[in-house]
Design brief:
Helix content is 0%, strand content 51%. The chain is mainly beta and 331 residues long.
């Protein structure tokens, strides 16, 4: 099921919180016109987050975590075409699902025993450990599935490496910044985008792009804090959220750092009209972006053209979400 697209893509996935028992975040779907909000999940046992669509839009993966008498437990679930989700991590723990290029396998982080990365198929079968005995922090798979961008595990990272599936080093990039996170390959495989910061809290952080051909990285933003970002499907542009003193700004920028311009400026200064943004999500044709906002005590999903025109605003009365994050546009 491939929903190519534009502003009329069939649905959005997001993590929503409703002010009612049991006070948990749950994964929801909503149609492109804002109708038919429905839960994907089947239970109330855990907080659910990080929804991620497979490349063709047929599968939706997400993470779930909850506290128990024996400590925190976590799992990865996968739903096909809106069907009841399957727990892919029965008997172990997992979080942070990322799709492999074939759209049939999911890469996830497991802290069940020594920290490591596992791969499992969409039916929960064939689970196996990646990188052998090598331990890595953040991991991102190349579009052709042959290489991985990885950071070291722990503090004082100062860069990242390109490795094979066996964990063997291919290329190393050294950064002057203490923390490097959120590695994401471009869809073309030519670049890797990442966030670099000087402290663990990321109070001053920037969005950078590394060119594989040269091994050199350049910053593509200029704000004091730059956080969540996403590549366009053709790998030519990025959308990211930056923070100023009184506002959140959604920017679009070319992969070489040129033509950086704000898509919208979201004022955080007035509590009665506060607007906040979450990670922007591209349409599959690269012509629109979806952003979750909060104003007048209500969360909405706003769809903008790349020129900055609001083309659609998704609102609903029931359920009444008191928090809404992690919007993901179905391809």
């Amino acid at each position: 099921m491939n929903h190519t697209g534009d502003d009329a893509a069939p649905c959005f996935a997001f993590s929503g919180f409703v002010e009612a028992e049991p006070y948990k975040f749950q994964i929801y779907l909503v149609d492109s016109d804002g109708s038919n909000p429905r839960r994907v999940s089947v239970g109330w046992e855990a907080d659910e987050s990080t929804p991620a669509w497979s490349r063709d839009g047929s599968y939706l993966a997400y993470g779930a975590a909850s506290a128990t008498d024996h400590g925190e437990t976590s799992a990865i679930y996968c739903s096909e075409d809106g069907s009841p989700p399957v727990n892919l991590t029965v008997g172990t723990r997992g979080r942070g699902p990322r799709w492999m290029p074939d759209g049939k396998h999911i890469l996830y982080f497991s802290d069940d025993g020594p920290d490591h990365w596992d791969i499992v198929d969409v039916a929960g079968q064939g689970r196996h450990r990646l990188f052998g005995d090598h331990l890595f922090g953040d991991v991102s798979c190349s579009p052709d599935g042959t290489h991985y961008a990885v950071t070291a595990l722990g503090e004082n990272i100062y860069g990242f490496s390109i490795v094979t599936a066996a964990g063997d080093m291919v290329q190393a990039y050294a950064s002057s910044h203490r923390y490097v996170t959120d590695l994401i390959w471009s869809p073309t495989g030519r670049e890797i985008a990442f966030i670099a910061a000087d402290d663990e809290e990321g109070t001053r952080s920037g969005l950078y792009v590394l060119a594989r051909a040269t091994g050199e990285a350049h910053r593509v933003g200029s704000m004091a804090f730059e956080g969540t970002f996403e590549w366009s499907s053709d790998g030519e542009r990025l959308a990211f959220v930056g923070q100023g003193r009184d506002s959140d700004v959604v920017y679009i920028v070319d992969r070489d750092g040129s033509d950086a311009h704000p898509l919208l400026d979201l004022n955080r200064g007035d509590p009665s009209g506060e607007i906040r943004s979450a990670s922007p999500s591209w349409s599959s044709d690269g012509r629109h972006l979806a952003v979750s906002t909060f104003v007048d005590d209500a969360f909405t999903i706003d769809v903008y053209s790349v020129e900055g025109q609001l083309t659609r605003q998704l609102t609903w009365d029931s359920p009444a979400f008191t928090l809404l994050y992690d919007v993901a546009w179905q391809p």
